[in-house]
Design brief:
The protein has 262 residues and is α+β, with helices and mostly antiparallel strands. It has a domain at 133-246: Up-down Bundle (Glutathione S-transferase Yfyf (Class Pi), Chain A, domain 2), CATH 1.20.1050. Helices cover 47% and strands 7% of the residues. It has nine helices and four strands. The protein is globular and about 60 Å long. Residues 132-262 form the GST C-terminal domain.
Amino acid sequence: MTAYEIPNVWQWEDENSERGGNRPTAGSRFEQTLPVGEAPFQLYSLGTPNGIKVTIMLEELKALGIQEADYDVYLINIGTGDQFGSDFVAINPNSKIPALVDQSQSPRVDIFESGSILLYLAEKFGQLLPEDIHGRTEALNWLFWQIGSGPYVGGGFGHFFAYAPEKMQYPIDRFTMETKRQLDLLDQTLAKRPYIAGDTYTIADIAIWSWYGRLALGNLYEGSAEFLDVQAYKHLMEWSQRIAERPGVQKGLEVEYKELGE
């Protein structure tokens, strides 16, 4: 393999005019009118680890009897570039799913970034986030831990293990090392308490399960559970399965996304 010679100034060599695909620029690429339903919340998303955090959260709230958490959910096909349409970018300038609109407020409230959405919903309805300062802080510690650590699992380990056009040992070793360190951290934490932040189920569990629980259960990248030897993390495995059995989690995974044209 030829060593990469780093230029003085990086140039993008794959320039194209397609709606989708990565570019080193932000902003909308085409005019778009997103559908808007009658439910209090309008969710524009996809069933990725970050996307399912929000459907799980909303279903958990509905399971608690909060009918005001009703929502319409529309499929944003990131493969064809729906996230770069003008209406979506108006909600989330970063062009990433999920994006949520609370139209029960006037004017409406636009929320993006999955962690921000979880926190918004928890605070709005007073659920799944402890009120005492110690419990609240611990839950937020772990919520933000996931937000900061997740890219090592997705964009790092997941990309080079499952999606990169060629297998390269150095990045796979590097990101596997960090992913296993994170799994070990979670396993040690869950050896001491039933949920991530303590004795109760919180938004920290929702955020972390959507990535690490599904990874442990073999539902993220084919072959990765064996490769990472996830069975060695027995406390993490028990927690992952227990969370997977929650009705709100199951409904959040099974939700039917409406097409943008519907």
